[in-house]
């Protein structure tokens, strides 16, 4: 089969790879329906994370079950499945507590920009649909496997409640999905922080009531102006830089909460400042598996359409173009079709 391999910063190639096989009885192999490039794939692509030896890429996927290991229950070949970027057995204590992305048997997916993918912990990770959904729904279901699930976690971790005010820091795919989540969880006012017109538009379509284009402390000042001088109930940090994290922490009101889901790079938090701010802080890799059944239902029923974050569609063999377009911010998120 063929798939994407990163060799060096800026150098992603589409190459012939070994066909994935069932290696453990708990594995499944799926045939990719659609996959995509993630904002977090840009960290190594931009040289902000070490690459080491050339290796496959991708952690978002929906597909058709091709083969299952002898210990996999509840799945059969031909089923359309949605998974998560973190695999989980869904039976260990951390899974039962709803933190499947910290499963004691967790393995992160890392080879999904390919025609076939091996999924460890298949029975606990994959959610099978009753029937193969219409192709128009595949992008939305694919978004659930990471960006929509992560946006939901941002809103959940930031304790978005009916009637509350939520600020979303970051206008990438996760930030835009976080707007959807804040709306679904009942936020009355949703302030999207974005400087890009097309992304502002999509944020408004997803439910943002206000847009703030200023950044850093200027952005914080605007948020305070819009929130009676004190800051927002909930702030959803969806970037992961030092600046965006400071912006998020300073935008929350005393007693408010920040959910941080952008993978931190160069972020430090000042203990004294956090102490005196009375701001609650929770984040980490999203427990997407906890949300999947609900998110799948919302997509299938047409209640939400996170697939709109894909503004570029390419055949999988042109995956390198997807990285380039996202790196240059010409595209929010690239959908790849095998
Ligand atoms: Zn587990």
Note the main attributes of this structure.
338 residues, alpha/beta, Quinone Oxidoreductase, Chain A, domain 1, Rossmann fold, six-stranded parallel sheet, 16 strands, binds zinc ion
CATH homologous superfamily (4th level) name of the largest domain: Medium-chain alcohol dehydrogenases, catalytic domain
- What is the highest CATH level, the class of the largest domain? Alpha Beta
Number of domains: 2
Q: What is the count of DSSP helices, taking H or I runs of 4+ residues? A: 12
Low-confidence stretches: none
Q: From the alpha-carbon coordinates, what is the Rg to the nearest angstrom? A: 19 Å
Number of strands: 16
- What spatial form do the alpha-carbon principal axes imply? globular
Strand content: 15-25%
Distance between the termini: 11 Å
Mean pLDDT: 97
Indicate the CATH topology of the largest domain. Quinone Oxidoreductase, Chain A, domain 1
Class by helix and strand content?
A: alpha/beta
The CATH architecture category of the largest domain equals Alpha-Beta Complex
Largest beta-sheet characterization: 7 strands, mixed
Helical content class: 25-40%
**Secondary-structure element series:** EEEHEEEHEHEHHEHEHEHEHEHEHEHE
- Which cofactor or ligand species appear? zinc ion
């Amino acid at each position: 089969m063929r798939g994407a391999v990163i060799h060096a910063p800026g150098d992603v190639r589409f190459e012939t790879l070994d066909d994935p096989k069932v290696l453990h009885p708990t594995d499944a192999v799926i045939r990719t329906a659609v996959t995509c490039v993630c904002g977090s794939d840009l960290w190594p692509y931009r040289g902000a994370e070490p690459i080491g030896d050339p290796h496959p890429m991708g952690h978002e996927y929906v597909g058709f079950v091709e083969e299952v290991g002898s210990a996999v229950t509840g799945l059969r070949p031909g089923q359309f499945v949605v998974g998560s970027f973190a695999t989980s057995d869904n039976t260990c204590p951390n899974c039962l507590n709803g933190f499947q992305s910290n499963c004691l048997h967790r393995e992160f997916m890392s080879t999904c920009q390919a025609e076939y993918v091996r999924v460890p912990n298949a029975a606990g990770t994959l959610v099978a649909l009753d029937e193969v959904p219409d192709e128009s729904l595949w992008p939305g279901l694919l978004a659930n496997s990471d960006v929509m699930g992560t946006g939901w976690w941002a809103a959940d971790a930031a304790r978005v409640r009916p009637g509350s005010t939520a600020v979303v820091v970051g206008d990438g795919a996760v930030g835009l999905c976080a707007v959807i989540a804040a709306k679904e969880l009942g936020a009355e006012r949703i302030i999207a922080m974005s400087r890009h017109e097309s992304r502002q538009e999509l944020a408004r379509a997803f439910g943002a009531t206000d847009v703030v284009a200023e950044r850093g402390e200027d952005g914080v000042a605007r948020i305070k102006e819009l929130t009676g001088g004190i800051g927002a109930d909930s702030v959803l940090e969806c970037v992961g830089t030092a600046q965006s994290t400071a912006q998020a922490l300073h935008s929350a009101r005393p007693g408010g909460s920040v959910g941080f889901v952008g993978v931190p790079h160069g972020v430090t938090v000042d203990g004294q400042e956090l102490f005196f701010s009375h701001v609650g802080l929770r984040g980490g890799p999203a427990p997407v598996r906890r949300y999947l059944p609900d998110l799948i239902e919302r997509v299938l029923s047409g209640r939400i359409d996170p697939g709109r974050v894909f503004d570029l569609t390419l055949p999988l063999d042109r995956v390198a173009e997807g990285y380039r377009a996202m790196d240059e911010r010409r595209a929010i998120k690239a959908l790849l079709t095998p």
